[in-house]
Amino acid sequence: xxxxxxxxxxxxxxxxxxxxxxxxxxxxxxxxxxxxxxxxxxxxxxxxxxxxxxxxxxxxxxxxxxxxxxxxxxxxxxxxxxxxxxxxxxxxxxxxxxxxxxxxxxxxxxxxxxxxxxxxxxxxxxxxxxxxxxxxxxxxxxxxxxxxxxxxxxxxxxxxxxxxxxxxxxxxxxxxxxxxxxxxxxxxxxxxxxxxxxxxxxxxxxxxxxxxxxxxxxxxxxxxxxxxxxxxxxxxxxxxxxxxxxxxxxxxxxxxxxxxxxxxxxxxxxxxxxxxxxxxxxxxxxxxxxxxxxxxxxxxxxxxxxxxxxxxxxxxxxxxxxxxxxxxxxxxxxxxxxxxxxxxxxxxxxxxxxxxxxxxxxxxxxxxxxxxxxxxxxxxxxxxxxxxxxxxxxxxxxxxxxxxxxxxxxxxxxxxxxxxxxxxxxxxxxxxxxxxxxxxxxxxxxxxxxxxxxxxxxxxxxxxxxxxxxxxxxxxxxxxxxxxxxxxxxxxxxxxxxxxxxxxxxxxxxxxxxxxxxxxxxxxxxxxxxxxxxxxxxxxxxxxxxxxxxxxxxxxxxxxxxxxxxxxxxxxxxxxxxxxxxxxxxxxxxxxxxxxxxxxxxxxxxxxxxxxxxxxxxxxxxxxxxxxxxxxxxxxxxxxxxxxxxxxxxxxxxxxxxxxxxxxxxxxxxxxxxxxxxxxxxxxxxxxxxxxxxxxxxxxxxxxxxxxxxxxxxxxxxxxxxxxxxxxxxxxxxxxxxxxxxxxxxxxxxxxxxxxxxxxxxxxxxxxxxxxxxxxxxxxxxxxxxxxxxxxxxxxxxxxxxxxxxx
Length: 807
Known about the structure:
With about 800 residues, the chain is of the alpha/beta class. It folds into five domains: about 1-215, Stationary-phase Survival Protein Sure Homolog, Chain: A, CATH 3.40.1210.10; about 230-260 and about 275-285, no CATH class; about 360-440, no CATH class; about 445-450 and about 600-805, D-amino Acid Aminotransferase, Chain A, domain 1; about 475-550 and about 560-575 and about 580-595, no CATH class. The chain is about 25% helix and about 20% strand.
């Protein structure tokens, strides 16, 4: 690529600019086309300034092939400066201008080097010293050059070297330079296409082995000058050489001239008795003790801390000032208008509202997910474009949050609400359908309750026997049971189940039998799941539950859809009680589903633990269905063995892959699907089948079960679908979960969940709120599994079904 290099330290010099020569040579060595435009002299601490009224004149620097950064080499020839350009077009020549780093960026981009083609990237630096923390960054000429390039719509990187010794060890510098070029190339290769980043600030510590240390994403440490950090001191006469002063500052030395010196030669003399102010000179002499202290006292995660620990820091930035007090955006600033006597006459109003503005209520109540949603929000919307709403203390947890009371009076702005199901103000969502988008559908139990899902599939397949659901969803027997003694009556119409159990009882010992899995329809987290193969087994399960239940039933299922029918945790036993961990409450003893047990499952080479695939599915409006390609593989806690003849010997930890149930979880229980040691084409085939089944299941619910699945045009929802792949490579749909438990993904794979929310907001919230078309609303490529699954920007969500349901 064509890289323009600038800096704020000037041409190569062991005393003021010891690093730029090394960087240029390493970039050229890597095959990049490099153009160089630098200030002709030291221009540190000047920020993104231009010298207005000055005529900027160029000089022409012809660098030497090599450069010695050691101070002892200052007297050696390191290159030549010429007033006229070389007539030899093949001779390497850098441009020096008597301007600022920002001016160098402008002149280098628009007035030189056109014969080399467009500039792909501007690198400002490497700076002679760190540019970490706000105090340094806000004044940095290195960042100033990169910022100027960014506002010229060029990708830009500000590169700074944090030294800890004045001994410019060439070996350390060369290692830092190689490392910096690797960072530069990586940042350029993965530069966000959504305009969320204008430039990066990179700080590399000059320490031995820096190329072997971590490179961390960081934020800028917000620090300030303190009252004792006086940046100027009084001096007599004029200030010395700029390069010498910069070197002193970088060394942390304080100037030796005493303050308060008066000079009659400067006209000060006895003027103190005649004028208000003494006539004095001042010299830039900052004291950094408090700045360094702020770094020492800061928590991990910022640029100052990273460099202090020997890490390279990379800070993504936008080329603007950060907008704060976002809670005021869209509000009115009322000004009092007074007459000449000072008496208030009337009140005028200044409306401070961006052209596009919305309110956001983000209260997911999950500390794992909440910051990821907020981060995704910041990626697509500038801080001034939205106002975050705060939930008042008077709101009762588990009840709807009244949006009308949170919003300003007579507000006409759009609203984005992402909260738990029970906190959604459905009256507001319904009455403001054109401007309020919410993260859930009101009705969706046709999919999320197991006996409804069974009925949905049965109805759909009955009219469409060729449907993919017929071969990817096990036939189910749904039944209701209040008391164990009535089990026979409950199974009167469960013909297939009864026939299978009777056949099993007649089988000779040692012959293969058909196993069944029992699932309470409204439980989650694997609670109440059991395996059985005979009527005696099944009767024993219910007898055991009834024996363990309390005498009185305090709970009663409410089938009213106005209740939180989506939040399955309301129906679940708390996992904090180990004695009841695998049991179910009285309210669960009603609806059950029995399905043939899938055996044998697909097992990995060298790992005989059973696993299922967690697939995140995003539904948007009425109705686009997307599959998130970055799927998870959730493993059982113990090695898989075929179900035993005796149900009492069945170890559920070997058969259930729900992470909530495992008490002996090994490392690698939750893994990224695409990292599994299976042939790529086999994984691609599994994805293709999952996409087909998912699209069919949601269309079946939307068309055949409209009373129990009703997508809204102003809503979106993320579901978690579980698939079990059998030994033949067929994925079977097990269940559909609303508000899936993202925490099971763990910290190491948190980026997977982050990417999911980013893609969902991109397609759902961005277009609804009027900020674009969602960047790719069409059918996504790659549903057949081609390419590097789960990695392609903009292709991580695959549109698997578009169901036209109308308004």
